[in-house]
Design goal:
Blueprint: H1 12-50, H2 55-86
Helix pairs in contact: 1-2
C-alpha cells in the first residue's frame, strides 16, 4: 500500500526562519534604496565642489563629501552582512 504524504504544520523554528528571511530581504531592499539616495548626494557634492565657492561654502561641501563617503561605506557593510545572512 503506498504511503500517504503527511503535511506537517510549520514549527516555531521554521516560522522564525521564514520571518527572519523576509526581514533580511526587506532590509536588503531598503539598503539598495539608501544606496541610490547616497549616490545622488555624492554626485551633488561633487558638482558643488567644482563650483567657485567662498571658503566657508567649500568647508560645507567638504563636510558633505566626507559624510556621504562614510555613509556609502557604512551602507556597503550593511549590504555585505545582509547578503551573508540571506545565504544561511
Amino acid at each position: 500500500m503506498p504511503e500517504k504524504h503527511v503535511v506537517r504544520p510549520k514549527t516555531e523554528n521554521s516560522n522564525a526562519k521564514s520571518d527572519a528571511h523576509r526581514d533580511v530581504e526587506k532590509l536588503r531592499s531598503l539598503a539598495h534604496d539608501l544606496s541610490n539616495s547616497i549616490e545622488a548626494i555624492m554626485q551633488a557634492s561633487y558638482l558643488l565642489s567644482q563650483a567657485k565657492l567662498d571658503a566657508g561654502s567649500k568647508r560645507w561641501v567638504q563636510l558633505l563629501q566626507t559624510s556621504s563617503d562614510e555613509a556609502a561605506q557604512i551602507n556597503r557593510e550593511i549590504r555585505k552582512l545582509l547578503r551573508a545572512m540571506s545565504e544561511q
